[in-house]
Amino acid sequence: MSRNEKLNLIVQLSIPSILAQVTTVLMFYIDAGMVGSLGARPSAAIGLVEPATWLIFSLVGAVTMGFSVQVAHFIGADDFAKARAVMRHGYAFGLCFSLLMLLTAFLIAPRLPMWLGGGIDIQHDAMLYFLIFSLIAPFHLIEYMSAAMLKVSGDMRRPSMMAILMCVLDVVFNYLFIFPTRTISLLGVEVTMPGLGAGVAGAALGSLLAFVCVALPLAYYAVFRSPILSWRQDAVRFVWRWQYIWNAMKISAPMALQYLLMNGAQLVSTMIVAPLGNVSIAAHSFAITAESLCYMPGYGISEAATTLVGQSVGAGRRDLCRSFAWMTVSSGMAVMAFMGIVMYVFAPEMIGLLSPVASIQHLGTAVLRIEAFAEPFFAAAIVAYSVCVGAGDTLKPSLINLGSMWLIRLTMAYALASRYGLRGVWFAMAVELTLRGLMFIFYLFRHLRKT
Predict the structure, then answer these.
(1) Sign of the CA dihedral running 162, 167, 171, 173
(2) Dist. CA 111–CA 127, nearest whole Å
(3) Which domain holds residue 50?
C-alpha cells in the first residue's frame, strides 16, 4: 500500500468513528446544559458522581476490548468462524460482568456521595442519578460489544449512525424528563410541552432509555445481519472454549485494572475539588464535558488505529503495523492540536452553553484554557495506547497511564489545590498529560523498532 492509500484508509475509518465519538459527547454536553440551566446545585450533584459512572462504563469497555481484539486478529487471518465464536463468548461473559457491575453500583450508591465529600444539599440527587444511570450497564455492554465487533470487521458506518441516533434520542428524552410541563412559544404559537419535571433523575432516565433504544437494534444487526459476523453462517454447533475467555482476560485484565485505578484517580481528584465548593465542582464537571468535545477526535482516530493494527498483526504484516501506528499517532496529534486552539479561543462560549452562572463560567473558562496546551500530547497518549491494544500489548502501556496519573497528576493537584484552587488542579492535569504523551511516544518508538 502506498502512503496515500494508507492515509485514505485511516481517514475512511476515522471519520465515522470521530462523528460517533463527537455525537456521544454532545449527548453529555446537552445533558449538562439542560441540568446546568437548573442551577449550580443540580450540576454539582451530577458532577460529583460522574467519575463513578465513567468507571462502570470503562470496565465494561475493557471487557469488550479483550474480545474485539481477538476478533480483529481472526478477521485479519481470514478465520471468520473463530471470530464469530469469540464474539459469542464476548456477549455471554460481558453480560454477566455488566450485571455484577450493576449489583455493585446498587450496593455502594447510598454512601457514594458522602464518600466523595459532597455536601448534604447535593447528596440525595447525586445518589439518585448514580442509581438510575447504573441501570445502563448491561445495555451499554450490548451496545459497546456490538459496535466494537462491527468496527473491527471494518463496518464503522452503522455504529456511527446509531451513536448519532442515540444522541438525538437522549436530547429528546431528557427534554421531556428533566423539565416540567410548560408552555413555550413556537413560531408565534403557544404550545404546551409535556414534561416529567424530574430534574437530575430525569437526565439519568433519558440516557437510560436512549441506550436501550440503540443497543438492541445494533446487537440485532451484528448477530443476524452482518456479512462477516452473523451467527447464521455457522454450520457447526457452538462449543464453549475457556481459551477465548483466558485470552480475553490477558488483554482485558491490565486494561480493567488501569481503568479501575485511572477512574479511581478521577474520584480522588473529585475529592480534592469537592472541598472547594459547589461552584468549583460544577465548573470542574462542565470543563471536563467541554474539553471532551476536543479530544473525541483523538479517540475516533484511536479506534481506527486499533482496527488497522489489529488486522495487520493478524495478517502477519509487521511493516503495515509500524506504518499505521506512526501515521495514526501523528494524525491524532495534528487534529487535536487544532482542537486545542479552538478550545482556547472559544472556551467562554463552550462553558457559557453549559451554565448561566457567571462564577461557573469564569472559572470553567480559565481551566479550559490551561488544558488547551496539552491537547496534542494527550492525543499521542490516546492513539499510541490504542495502537498497543490492537497489537495485544496492554500491560506496560497501562502501567504508563497509571504511573503518570497517580504519581504526577494527583500529587501535583493535591499540592496546588489548597493555594490555587481549581486552576491548580487543572494545571497539574495539563502537565501530566504532556508528560504522558511524551512517554508513550518514547515507548512506541522503542517497541516498534524491535518488531
Answers:
(1) positive
(2) 8
(3) 3-450
pLDDT tens profile 295-313: 778 888 887 888 788 878 8
The H-or-E segment that residue 192 falls in is: strand 189-196
Note the helical H segments in 153-277: 157-178, 200-220, 242-273
From the list 28, 31, 43, 125, the residue with the least C-alpha distance to 357 is: 43
Cell 464503522 belongs to 156
> What pLDDT, in 10s, does the model give residues 249-267?
887 887 777 777 777 787 7
- Cα dihedral 248, 250, 252, 256, rounded to 10, equals 150
Task: Tell me the whole-structure pTM to 2 decimals.
Answer: 0.70
Q: What gap in Å lies between CA 219 and CA 67, rounded to an integer?
A: 15
Whether 33 shows a pLDDT value over 80: the answer reads no
Distance CA 70, CA 425 (A): 39
Q: Read off the pLDDT of each residue in 11-35 and give the average, rounded to a whole number.
A: 70
Distances in Å between the alpha carbon of 431 and those of 114, 266, 370? 30, 16, 10
For the segment 79-87, the average pLDDT, to the nearest whole number, is 90
pLDDT at 390: 82
Start-to-end CA distance of the chain, whole Å, equals: 19
Q: Is 191 exposed, middle or buried (0-12, 13-18, 19+ CB in 10 A)?
A: exposed
CA distance 70 to 311: 10
Quickly state the pLDDT bin for 433 (edges 50, 70, 90).
very high
Instruction: State the DSSP code for 236.
Output: S
**Angle at which helices 242-273 and 40-76 pack, to 10 degrees?**
160
What pLDDT does 396 receive?
A: 86
Q: Taking a C-beta distance cutoff of 8 angstroms, is the pair 237, 85 a contact?
A: no
Query: What is the domain count for the chain?
Result: 1
Over the stretch 338-380, which tens digit does the pLDDT of each residue have? Answer: 999 999 999 999 898 888 888 999 999 999 999 999 999 999 9
Pairing mode, strands 180-186 and 189-196: antiparallel
The phi and psi torsions of 382 (rounded to 5 degrees) equal -65, -55
